[in-house]
Amino acid sequence: MSEYPKRCVLVVEDGVVKLFGDYHKEFMAQVKDIVPNKHRSWDPDARCWEVSEDYFSTLEELAGVHFSYVHVVRAVPVQRNSSHEATRLQIKLETANSEIEALKRTVTALQTRMAGMSVRSNNSSSPIEQFLNKEDAARVYKILASRHHPDRGGNHNVMVALNRWFEKWR
After folding, report:
1. What confidence score (pLDDT) does residue 130 get?
2. Which of 68, 126, 139, 143 has the greatest number of CB atoms lying within 10 Å of its CB?
3. CA distances (Å), origin 155, targets 42, 83, 100, 152, 164
4. What is the band of 114 on the pLDDT scale with cuts at 50, 70, 90?
């Protein structure tokens, strides 16, 4: 099974590029080689790297090499007190949109596979599961687990059921 694609979000706000997303060792090593210390810093509250906007095009190019999904968000100025929260909500919206697009591609691939095939009679699984492969199941699992994990405010029972379902695909 292939590794789940890594995501990177570049948020441009007030002359700074904030790097959010999955950790990628090689990407960060290159960023540290290219961007001097005085032009980059770690924000522990937002859990992201902040880099001078002067390096935006370089960061965008590097991210395109190392990540499967790269999103650029240009933050719109809002009221001072809610700026940080508005940026985080905009990032969540961008991430949700990319997950929806990934699910749409998976459904389209499944529909293509299902065309012309007859459904086997098997009471232990739904008809759609008969056309899933390990990679599709992993993609669906990853998206649903990120939404329903108890550490992220999800329901424990839903996560247990999701884990049991995914065990069939390992």
Report:
1. 61
2. 139
3. 32, 30, 21, 9, 15
4. low
Q: Are residues 98 and 115 in the same domain?
A: yes
Q: In the chain, how many domains are there?
A: 2
Q: Give dist(CA 14, CA 120) in Å, integer.
A: 57
CA separation, residue 30 to residues 14, 20, 89, 122 (Å): 24, 16, 28, 51
- Output DSSP code: residue 5: P
Copy the structure tokens of residue 39.
């032009």
The residue from 61, 79, 97 where one domain ends is: 79
Judging by beta carbons within 10 Å of its beta carbon (0-12, 13-18, 19+), is residue 30 exposed, middle or buried? middle
Instruction: Return the closest-CA partner of residue 98 out of 50, 56, 146.
Output: 146
pLDDT, tens digit (0-9, with 9 covering 90-100), for 95-112: 777 777 777 777 777 666
Pairing verdict, β 7-13 and 16-21: antiparallel
